[in-house]
Amino acid sequence: MAQAAGVYPTLEERSLKETICLFDVDETLTPARQSVSPQMLQLLSALRHKCAIGFVGGSNLIKQQEQLGTSAINVTSLFDFCFAENGLTAFRLGAPLASASFIGWLGEEKYKQLVNFCLRYISEIDIPIKRGTFVEFRYGNGMINISPIGRNASIPERLAFEAYDKTHNIRIQFVSALKEKFPDFGLTYSIGGQISFDVFPTGWDKTYCLQHIKNEKNISGVDYKTIHFFGDKTYKGGNDYEIFVDERTVGHSVEGPEDTMRQLRELFDL
């Protein structure tokens, strides 16, 4: 895939200039927590000649760089728009846009109450294994990530927990306990990936990135009237649900990277 935006037509010169395709990362562009395939990058490059493309994921930019970029290629050069942490860290054509802060919004005292509750809850649940990094604060931005098994789990351990969770509803029960404990905090809980769920202010889900898309009209004059979104967790409670059903988007539910590529080929004659 081309390494810089300069080899593509400008946003104003794309043949489908009023169309943009946004993609979830895990199980949409890549296998969960793994690297993108050369075939996917090639297809995205072909699509980028026709319309704008972007990704929107819950993870921080470092993790998205690991999955989508390489040591020689910055992920922000591979997409027109890069939305890490649901768009709270955002890049347009490689340049950073304004960011937002979870703690600045919630306040230190409430944040401590939330984290203390999560750590107590995790200490008391009985699951087959636990590793480390149970609460990850994605510093300077808009969410925390909670993992009952711990984010240090290996890929086989993640797969095992995902299967266990589907039977025992560990994450669903955890979210229910948080909603009951903190009903007035104005928080949304979104289950995504294999081992964790995100916690963020209501309205700071993946739809948060759409304000940047709509603001493009004020920057380049391009008005994105068709916003395609592709994601795998599009069911209610999944971290793709809000943007999937948003009236501003055309939602596409996928069953993995191969399905994403199939749908793109059919929709855009690639």
Description:
This protein is 35% helix and 18% strand. It contains nine helices and eleven strands. The chain has helices spanning 38-48, 61-68, 102-106, 108-124, 155-168, 170-181, 210-219, 241-245, 257-268, and strands at 19-23, 52-56, 81-84, 89-92, 95-96, 135-137, 144-146, 187-192, 196-201, 226-231, 250-253. It has a seven-stranded mixed β-sheet with strand order 5-4-3-2-1-10-11.
| Alpha-beta content class | alpha/beta
Q: Can you tell me the overall shape?
A: globular
Helix content: 25-40%
Number of strands: 11
> Rg to the nearest angstrom?
18 Å
Number of DSSP helical runs:
9
Uncertain residue ranges:
1-5
- Beta percentage is 15-25%
> Spatial order of the strands in the main sheet?
5-4-3-2-1-10-11
User: Main β-sheet: number of strands, strand sense, barrel status?
Assistant: 7 strands, mixed
Elements, N to C (H/E): EHEHEEEHHEEHHEEHEHEH
- End-to-end distance: 15 Å
Mean pLDDT comes to 93
Blueprint of the fold:
Elements: E1 19-23, H1 38-48, E2 52-56, H2 61-68, E3 81-84, E4 89-92, E5 95-96, H3 102-106, H4 108-124, E6 135-137, E7 144-146, H5 155-168, H6 170-181, E8 187-192, E9 196-201, H7 210-219, E10 226-231, H8 241-245, E11 250-253, H9 257-268
Parallel strand pairs: 1-2, 1-10, 2-3, 10-11
Antiparallel strand pairs: 3-4, 4-5, 6-7, 7-9, 8-9
